[in-house]
Design goal:
The protein is α/β, with parallel strands linked by helices. The protein has two domains: 130 residues, Aspartate Aminotransferase, domain 1 (Alpha-Beta Complex); 242 residues, Aspartate Aminotransferase, domain 2, CATH 3.40.640.10. Helix content is 43%, strand content 15%. The protein is built from 14 helices and 15 strands. The strands form four sheets. A seven-stranded mixed beta sheet has the order 2-10-9-8-5-3-4, with helices on both faces. A four-stranded antiparallel beta sheet has the order 11-12-15-14. The chain has a two-stranded parallel ribbon with strand order 1-13. Helix 10 packs across helix 11 and helix 11 packs antiparallel against helix 14. It starts with 6 loop residues before the first strand and ends in a 7-residue tail after the last helix.
C-alpha cells in the first residue's frame, strides 16, 4: 500500500468531528472574559438539552474517571454503605474508587461479558436498606455489554440511595431518560459520542444527589461540585478550563442537536447490529451476545488465535486502530466501536479489512460474506426509512 490513512476505530478516543476540530483554532481567548462566559453558558445549556435532563449539568477538566471520583467525594461520607455493580474493567474501577475513599462496598459482581441483573440489585437493596448509593456502568466498554439502567433506576428511585451511572460510552449509544428513570448522577466524557478530543468530563446532578452532597464529609478540593455549580451560574469554571475542548464541544453539540440526539443513538444501534451480523456470518463468536450494547462490539478471535494478532494486522495492513481486550480479556477479544462520528461507509471498509486479515491468518473466509451482512442491514434500514436522508 502506498497511501495510508490512519483510521481510529476505538471506543475512545473516537474520530473527530471536522467542525469541532476547526473550532479549536479559536482557543486564544481568556477564560475570565465575556466571550468565554458566553461560550461556557452555551455549552452547559446545550449539554442539558442533548442529555435530555432538567438537572444541573457541570463540566470538569478531567477524563471521565475524574467525574467518577467527583461523584463519590461530593456525595458520600466515610463508612457509607454503597452497592457497586461490576461486570468488567470499569465496574472494577467503581469498586476501586469507592473503596479508596473508605466506603462500605457491597459488590454485585458478574463475569466479564455478562451484566448485573436488575433482580440481583433489587435483592441487594432489600438486604441493605441503609445503602446510600448504587454505582453502575450503562455501557461496560471493556466487554461490549450493557446494563438495564432503566429497570435499575426505577428500583433505586424508591430508596434513600442515589443512582450513579457511568454513561461515558452509554451516552449517545443507548436511550437514557435521566429524569424519568431516576438517574441521579450521569457521567459523560468529551472523547466518546461527542466526537472531540479527551480532556473534559461532565455530569448531571439531581436534587436527590445535591441533598446527599449537603451532608457529605469526604475530602475534596479540585473536584468541588458545589463550587463548580456556583461559578457556572456566571459562566465561569472554578479552575482554568480546557478552552480548546470547550470550543470543540460547542460545535459538536450543535451538530448533535441538528442531527437529533435520538438519531445519534440510532446510528450506533444500527452499526452495532450490522457488526454483530457480520461477525456471525464470518463464523466468529460474539463475546457479550446475551447483553450487547451499541457503543462497542466485542468479538472473540478464531480458536487458537490471539486477538492481538488481529489488532496488529489492522494497524500494519490498513493503518486502522481497533481495541484489544482489557485486563483479563487481553488477547481473548477484539473490540470495534460504533459511537460518535462513525457511519456505514466506515463499517463496510472495516469488515472488508477484517475478512482479509482473517483469511491471511488461516481462518476460512468467503470474501464479501461479512460485508454483505452489513449491506443487508443498511438496505433494510434505508427501506424502512430508519436512516437520515435516504
Amino acid at each position: 500500500m502506498y497511501i495510508r490513512k490512519q483510521r481510529l476505530l476505538t471506543p475512545g478516543p473516537t474520530p473527530l468531528l471536522p467542525k469541532a476540530l476547526h473550532a479549536m483554532m479559536g482557543s486564544d481567548i481568556h477564560h475570565r472574559t465575556e466571550d468565554f462566559r458566553k461560550l461556557y453558558k452555551g455549552v452547559l445549556a446545550d449539554l442539558k438539552e442533548v442529555m435530555g435532563t432538567s438537572n444541573d449539568v457541570l463540566i470538569l477538566v478531567a477524563s471521565g474517571s475524574g467525574a467518577m471520583e467527583a461523584s463519590v467525594t461530593n456525595c458520600f461520607s466515610p463508612g457509607d454503605k454503597v452497592i457497586v455493580c461490576s461486570a468488567g474493567k470499569f465496574g472494577e474501577r467503581w469498586a476501586g474508587i469507592t473503596k479508596a475513599y473508605g466506603l462500605n462496598v457491597v459488590l454485585l459482581e458478574e463475569p466479564y461479558g455478562s451484566a448485573v441483573a436488575a433482580s440481583k440489585l433489587e435483592a441487594a437493596l432489600a438486604a441493605n436498606p441503609d445503602a446510600r448509593g448504587v454505582f453502575v456502568q450503562a455501557s461496560e466498554t471493556s466487554t461490549g455489554a450493557a446494563h438495564d439502567v432503566e429497570a435499575m433506576g426505577k428500583l433505586v428511585k424508591n430508596t434513600n440511595a442515589i443512582f450513579v451511572v457511568d454513561a461515558i460510552t452509554g451516552m449517545g449509544t443507548m436511550p437514557l431518560n435521566i429524569d424519568e428513570w431516576g438517574l441521579d448522577i450521569v457521567i459523560g466524557g468529551s472523547q466518546k459520542s461527542l466526537m472531540v478530543p479527551p480532556g473534559v468530563a461532565f455530569l448531571s446532578m439531581s436534587a436527590k444527589a445535591w441533598k446527599h452532597a449537603e451532608s457529605a464529609r469526604l475530602p475534596r478540593y479540585y473536584f468541588d461540585l458545589k463550587k463548580e455549580a456556583k461559578n457556572a451560574v456566571n459562566g465561569e469554571s472554578s479552575w482554568t478550563p480546557a478552552t480548546s475542548i470547550l470550543l470543540a464541544l460547542g460545535e459538536a453539540l450543535k451538530y448533535v442537536k441538528e442531527l437529533g440526539a435520538a438519531n445519534l443513538v440510532r446510528n450506533a444501534e444500527l452499526l452495532a447490529r450490522a457488526t454483530r451480523e457480520a461477525a456471525t456470518a464470518l463464523g466468529l463468536t460474539l463475546f457479550s451476545g446475551a447483553n450487547p450494547g451499541s457503543a462497542v462490539t466485542a468479538i472473540c478471535p478464531p480458536a487458537g488465535m490471539d486477538s492481538g494478532v488481529i489488532v496488529k494486522e489492522f494497524r500494519n495492513r490498513f493503518g486502522a486502530i481497533i481495541a484489544n481486550g482489557q485486563g483479563t480479556m487481553k488477547g481473548q477479544i477484539f473490540r470495534i466501536a460504533h459511537l460518535g462520528y462513525f457511519d456505514f461507509a466506515d463499517l463496510f471498509a472495516m469488515v472488508a479489512a477484517l475478512e482479509i486479515i482473517l483469511a491471511a491468518n488461516g481462518h476460512p473466509v468467503q470474501f464479501g460474506t461479512g460485508v454483505a451482512a452489513v449491506q443487508n442491514v443498511y438496505a433494510s434500514a434505508a427501506l424502512n426509512r430508519e436512516l437520515v436522508n435516504t
